[in-house]
Specification:
The protein is of the alpha+beta class. The chain contains seven helices and five strands; from the N terminus they run E-E-H-E-E-E-H-H-H-H-H-H. The longest helix is centred in the middle third of the chain and has 32 residues.
Length: 266
Amino acid sequence: MTTATSTPGPSPSNDQPKIIVHWLEASRGTRLLFLLEELKLQYEVKAYKRGADKLAPEELKKIHPLGKSPAISISAGNEAKPLVLAESGAVFEYCTKHFGPQLIPQEWTAGKEGVVGGETEEWLRYRYYMHYAEGSLMPYLIVMLVADGIKNAKVPFFIKPITNSISGNIKSSFVSPQLTNNFDFLESQLASSPGGGEYLCGKNVTAADILMSFPVGAAKQASLIPKEKYPKICAYVEKLESLESFKRAQKRINDTEGTFNKTAYV
């Protein structure tokens, strides 16, 4: 029985390579659709269902040896074999370089091109958040998910106090303080956005904002970001999710999966 379904989008134009997104249900791969919609690219979604163990199916290993999502294949007309890319940050960097330089802030301050320290604040923030999203913020959300899994595990009633204690200790002594530290940081970063902008890197949305949309959106949906304490982060999430490109990506996922889930962190 197959675990993959394909939903083609509009046919790509003659000068656009064929793009297939290999998307795993309830995954962070949703951001890639958000990016492609923002870039107004045509693409096909090949969706993969998780198994009973909640893991990705073996079929994804036919696309990439690690069997992870998102993965994307790009077929140019003159290439016999499609280019396959994995890892969200790497895919984002490739797509913006070739199809969306407008989502990358200007790198150099005028007159300081090529000089160490001559980069604009917008670009430096962009480079930082392209790595921060997965390297700093997401690991704590994943540990939070694991802790919840321990708490909600089906165990004998006399074991339940132990699993509750383990889960509670992980959250109170490790995860919660780190998330608070990160959310405090993000709130201050939005308050000091270059040019008084509403995005992390300034006045215009960037690929880094789209990459950040999942961890902050998931945290907000999971009630980890109270609006009274973090009004700017909540406003930031709402602004990202009000973009037409986000809504189109959401609809594409709903049409494919039947639900748009931001709390499945994996």
